[in-house]
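To the wet lab folks,

You asked to see what we're planning to order before we commit. Fair enough. Below is the target structure as tokens, and below that is the sequence we designed to fit it. If anything looks off to you, flag it before the synthesis order goes out.
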């Protein structure tokens, strides 16, 4: 057996799904993402959502302005699909290098998704165009039908919407975002090469019990909600398998403390500050360090048809205690008060 390494040097990773927010929150959370990742796919669910090329350009400028001096980071912007977004606006944004992809939120599926798509039939011309110009579609894959149990919403989405969508638009590149179930992992593993999935650190570490351990723990509440243990195990298998259809997307989703600690608490886990250490722990526990770099730094850009990053990062085997809470907005980071075995150097 080869001894466990004390240091890992790898191609700089990217985050293929992050919520950077805006204003004061943007300023607080951006450095954590920019420290680790060269690029990130930035979610458009602001209030109001990013539905136009001009709004995306303005948001991109605010992100660039919030970046601390000396940090290199490229935000990749996304368009928020609505029932009446125009195919021409999307195509213009894509061809001008503003929109890397477009995000489908089923209406009311999650935070700031009220303006999302009420029925896929409303956007068939948009999907047709995206397929024609090879613009990736990013999907929050949950049905919103109140008759469907919240823990079944992702699996039902596959049957009701994703399978028909693949049939109708077989050449459309699709990322099934933040998958949480064995059904989704299986669907993507079996799927065609134009279908991929991101997997978050938290869905690899926690199952649904975490939300109820000793009381109601809103810091572990996110959407799609964490599922049973067998799903977590299936996700760990998928992420660490070496299958190029799975790649890193943190879904880091910070909310002010008052938004989490409320009678109607917000969904979202803030995992950006220790994201790489968190993923790395999983790959090490699964005996799959040899697949970590592909998951973190290669599968994503290959799927998005973007160049791989050329610089590197170093992770060292140094224990670090994650703080219970961070300064500023009072954010509680994922792994709060736990000790992580690895630390990103620099
Ligand atoms: C996200 C947010 O807060 O914007 N919340 C979450 O739990 N992941 C929205 C989302 O990605 O679903
Ligand atoms: Zn998200």
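Sequence we intend to order:
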């Amino acid at each position: 057996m080869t001894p466990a390494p004390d240091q890992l040097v790898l191609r700089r990773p990217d985050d293929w799904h992050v919520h950077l927010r805006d204003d004061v929150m943007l300023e607080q959370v951006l450095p954590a993402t920019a420290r680790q990742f060269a690029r990130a796919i930035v979610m458009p669910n602001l209030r109001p959502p990013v539905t136009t090329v001009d709004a995306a350009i303005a948001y991109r400028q605010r992100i660039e302005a919030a970046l601390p001096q000396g940090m290199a980071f490229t935000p990749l912007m996304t368009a928020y699909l609505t029932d009446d977004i125009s195919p021409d606006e999307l195509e213009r944004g894509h061809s001008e290098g503003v929109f890397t992809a477009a995000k489908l939120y089923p209406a009311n599926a999650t935070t700031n998704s009220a303006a999302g798509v009420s029925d896929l039939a409303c956007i068939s011309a948009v999907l047709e165009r995206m397929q024609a110009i090879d613009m990736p579609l990013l999907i929050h894959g949950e049905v919103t039908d109140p008759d469907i149990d919240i823990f079944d919403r992702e699996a039902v989405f596959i049957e009701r919407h994703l399978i028909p969508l693949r049939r109708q638009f077989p050449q459309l590149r699709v990322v099934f975002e933040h998958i949480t179930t064995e059904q989704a992992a299986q669907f993507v593993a079996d799927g065609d090469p134009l279908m991929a999935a991101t997997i978050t650190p938290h869905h690899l570490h926690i199952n649904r019990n975490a939300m109820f351990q000793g009381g109601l723990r809103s810091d572990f509440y996110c959407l799609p909600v964490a599922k049973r243990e067998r799903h977590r195990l299936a996700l760990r298998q998928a992420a660490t398998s070496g299958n190029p259809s799975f790649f890193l997307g943190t879904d880091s989703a910070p909310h002010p403390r008052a938004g989490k600690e409320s009678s109607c608490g917000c969904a979202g886990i803030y995992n950006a500050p220790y994201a790489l250490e968190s993923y790395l722990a999983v790959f090490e526990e699964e005996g799959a360090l040899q697949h970590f770099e592909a998951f973190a730094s290669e599968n994503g850009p290959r799927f998005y048809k973007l160049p791989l990053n050329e610089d590197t990062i170093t992770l060292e085997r140094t224990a670090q205690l994650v703080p219970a809470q961070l300064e500023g907005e009072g954010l509680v980071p994922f792994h709060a008060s736990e000790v992580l075995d690895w630390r990103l150097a620099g």
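Structural context that might help your review: The two ends are 30 Å apart (CA to CA). Residues 124 and 298 are 31 Å apart (CA to CA).

Thanks,
Computational group
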